[in-house]
Design a protein that fits this description.
Rossmann fold; alpha/beta; about 550 residues; ten-stranded mixed beta sheet; about 45% helix
Length: about 550
Amino acid sequence: MQISPLQKARAAYQPRLPKILAENGPFATARTGEPTQSVADQDAIKRLFPDTYGLPAIDFIPGEKRETAPIKAGVILSGGQAPGGHNVIAGLYDGLKKLNAENQLFGFLGGPSGLIEDKQILLTDEIIDSYRNTGGFDMICSGRTKLETEEQFEKVMATCKKHGITAIVIIGGDDSNTNACTLAQYLLSKNAGIQVIGCPKTIDGDLKNAWIEVSFGFDTATKVYSELVGNIMRDANSARKYWHFIKLMGRSASHIALECALQTHPQACIVSEEVAAKKLSLKQIVDQLTATVVDRAANSMNFGVVLIPEGLIEFIPEIQTLIAELNDLLAKHQAEFDALDLDGKVAFVEKNLSDAHKEVFKPLPAAIKAQLVGDRDPHGNVQVSKIETEKMLAEMIDTNIKALNAAGKKIKFSSQCHFFGYEGRCAAPSNFDANYCYSLGFTASALIAAGKTGYMASCRNISKPIDQWVAGGIPLTMMMNMEHRHGKDVPVIRKALVDLEGAPFKTLAENRDAWAKGVEFRYPGPIQYFGPTEVCDLPTETLSLEHK
């Protein structure tokens, strides 16, 4: 396979480590703090995780180099891709080799299923070196299999026993690390002698707390999206005739949309968490955006950019309850409903919905109605991620504008719709993510060397220069709470949504009126890998504001 000149240059980049790891390697000593507790539902979490609950948080201090027995470890990539995953593996590999040159690292293929089914490769210098500082998860690929049943845990133990593996590193998001927490508890209860360490991955930015200041991949993905948004802003300001509606990946949280807004200064950025807090209706959202279009048209500015978080539709109160009623209605009449064509399905829903939800459903654009009554997920629910919210808003604003024009106004409105998702999650990692991911992997090797299990690798103080980063580990149980899913209460790592009292959102709120009225576009440009530190090594606006 041919590689580009940029790939060659990035392959030569040597990620940096926090001072404690740069000077002590994986031989740094794990210093334990006070016992911890879960973020909520302490009694329930303690009961479910009796062997891992209450573990102390850890940071590393200087330690002496020592001889260690050979270790065999395994690593998996779990869930969706995020820039920097390969560097986590590289950092883990290098740390293990520094501990003992005889140490081995197995990469399990296709995520957790590879661990269950014993599909693996022995990672070598040649393999690792060919993937350093690259995007994607293609070294060993990922998967979304859940590790949650006793049968699966027994198969994991059998796989580890077969290869002599005594440590597993799970690189994933909140759900994947929930599984890591459950697996760690099970293995401890069986005295299996297998450590489990997690690493925080997701571009969505919703795996964060006081100890996990950001999940890896967020920095790179938001910089890629911000470049694209900036490019569209240049086009909008050049042509001066289009409104661009841009939906951004991020699942339920609005962290990506907010960061891109802070980077680029659009005319509007919807924050789902604010919509929920203010109980804004769909009509209110559309009317607010329509007012912005009208105000700008009065100043001959018939163009603009609107950023929309992927999960918005789930936060609009009447759409939320509409979807819940739809799920129940179609579950009760599944056979009858499945036999109908699309028009028949829409008519069936309009006939059988409650009066309140008929009023919500009927004005929706035809394409959105089709998506709401379309194929369900395995649990029988509407697949909200497939609903083209950006097109819905654009069409509903267009309807409002046509009504105003029919009443005598003369407003020009033409829309373009975009969805930025896969463009960012496998990008070559920024300098920040290259360093951060390598440090997380190296930290995981130090946690293994310290004999720890049930921990997530952590680097704190990461808005500062890297030599000031604090490497350590946070107990997985510390992030857990109980949530009602699929009809029962289950332990999960709590998702971090946008904090409406936090500095990032407040900065948006303070500036959005000015951005709405004028042309204050900011053009961040492409990720800078090479050049002055003040250009190439900037953290995200979100991280800077949170730790200002």
